[in-house]
Fold this sequence. Notes:
The chain is mostly helical. It has helices at 6-32, 36-60, 67-90, 95-99, 104-127, 129-142, 153-185, 189-192, 199-205, 208-217, 222-238, 246-264, 275-299, 309-320, 324-332, 343-346, 348-356, 358-364, 375-378, 384-392, 394-398, 407-434, 442-455, 465-470, 473-496, 505-511. It has a domain at 146-333 and 426-455. Helix content is 73%, strand content 0%. The protein is globular. This is O-antigen polysaccharide polymerase Wzy.
Amino acid sequence: MIKVKSEDLLRDTILFGITILLMLAANFLTVLGGDFWKTAVDVLFFAIISLNIAIAASLIRNVRRDFALLIFLLTYNVLLMGRVYTSWFGYHHKLLLLLEADDFSKLFQSLQLVALSLFCVYFAYRLAGPIFHKRESAIEKLHTKAVYKDHLLPLIRRLSTIVLYISSVPFFYILFKTALDVVRHGYLQSFTNTSDVPSIISRLSMFFVPAFAVFLATLPNKKQMKLPLAVYSVYMLASLFTGRRNTIVCEALMLTFYFVMRDSLLEKGKRVIKKRMVAYVGVFGIIAMYFLQMLALVRSGAEDTHRGLGEMLVSFIDSQGASFRVIVQTVNHIQSFNPSTTYLYLFYPFELFVHNNVVTRTLFGFTPIIEVQNSEFVQTTHNFGHALTYMVDPDRYLSGGGFGTSYVAEAYVAYGILGVIFVSAMIGLIFRFFASLLTHNWVVITCGLLAVKSFVYIPRNFAFLWVTDVFNITYICFYAAIYLAALFIAKGTHVRRTHRDVPDPLVLEERI
């Protein structure tokens, strides 16, 4: 039975009670109309701040268990509210201009969608507690004994490292080619041009990311992790030369989540991650934000890149928070969308998958979808980011710029408020699953680690891209192949040693 502490109940009642009262007051002001819309927006803004405080206070009480959702709370506020915060406190008199809203009623509606989605994510997360309570309790009481055991894990670990090293060669080749194109033609031109890569190189490179995820899923020790982690770190740093900042950030957040979950499996006296380390990571994060924003200024061709730390941090939050305009522009132009086809924007990742997968494309005669920003592509695509940018600013779109997308906007366009509620609830349920991820077998852990990267970025991403990214046919075949290979090696060794005891898998691992 789940016990609720009285102090937690009192805290949640007060903080969420204040939030609800502020939201009710904001909606009451909208009924009065006129100049009260501006006041309603102000009240709703503080309601969102109160909601964030309430959620953060609740998550920090069980920070190790709820760490994944705490990361999401951070990325959600940066990606969807960052520009709102900088505009609010810096240029409140220019809110409509800076946030690109047609009027205060549209701005109010946009902020309400952001608040509703965040509340539904957290509410679903809390409601899903009883479903995963047994596994979460096992982590708290049994620690490492709650981890799934399999005698093939050492073999799978070694095989995954071999694949990681082999696939790193074509993977880094493609990364180098992409970076070279960006240096030659500019960052924006990389979205309007395509570069040819030999098919064999492209296919081999696809195993690099899942091989590392499989390696982590086997829960290697510190010594076993050194070289694979070094190779993967080179990839993370090299991705910056392509001009894209989200890759290294999402990968870093996934690794942070993984190591916190690993640390949670240890008894309290043996844990490595403590308050001092958290402080060091915080300082490192601030420094990283500074240099990431410096990269953004360099790729944009800005002349003045010598700015103070405070100015750079504000600039970073403002630039990352530009995703809010996806929601604002969606509300501004909601009447321009065709209601009979808007649901296709929500499910575009599935359309992209069936068109580009060799099996489904051959069976149903689909043509491949090549995402290039030109007028021909935007007229036939259901990619919401492309469609919205072209609808609002065709010149910006054709020059390589774009607003991007967001699961909130896609869900709202497809099914209105109900769409936002259901998609947000799905996200909350999945984050609750992440809380006990390491108690599952290596395949589930692998899929979970790949999914974490998508979910921390989902405020600026497609609602269902994580499905096709995690459960694509190539990855599934890879998992099956590596398992069968480990099984074959283990059984082959057993046959050769029928007159002895079954060898220790650790010994087998050293002999591969």
